[in-house]
Amino acid sequence: MATVKIPTQLRAATDGEATANVQGSTVGEVLDALYDRYGELRSRIAEDGGLRRFVNVYVGGEDIRFLEGLDTPVADGDEVTIRGFCERAGCARIGFGSCSGVVQSARAHWAA
To answer: What's the rounded Cα separation, in Å, for the pair 20 and 4?
Structure first.
């Protein structure tokens, strides 16, 4: 069984779940099991039998684009991470991965 890490931006499709444990011996099988559980994810991640252009998947931290793609083997206990990005010429890549920060009072800022 693999653990799939789901980015914050896709958790509305997973009832708020940040991870899912699913069976599969390849990335494609793992994703199919994930789609069976959370049907909305397929339209957000997949396109024409593959991954959408802006979606990257990692197994154990390794990008499957540089391995065997959706045929990349997944062993019991592996961690599969879904990440997304967008970019355009001359601009930085922006992802839908983890993000954190501190919200500060505007009053404190302007009072100084």
So the answer is: 5
The number of domains in the chain is 1
CA distance 31 to 51: 10
Q: Return the number of other C-beta atoms located less than 10 Å from residue 104's C-beta.
A: 8
Query: What is the extent of the structural domain holding 12?
Result: 2-111
pLDDT digits (tens, 9 = 90+) for 11-30: 989 999 999 999 999 999 99
CB burial of 78-90 (b: ≥16 within 10 Å; e: otherwise) equals: bebbbbbeeeeee
User: What's this model's pTM, rounded to 2 decimal places?
Assistant: 0.76
Rg, the chain, Cα only: 17
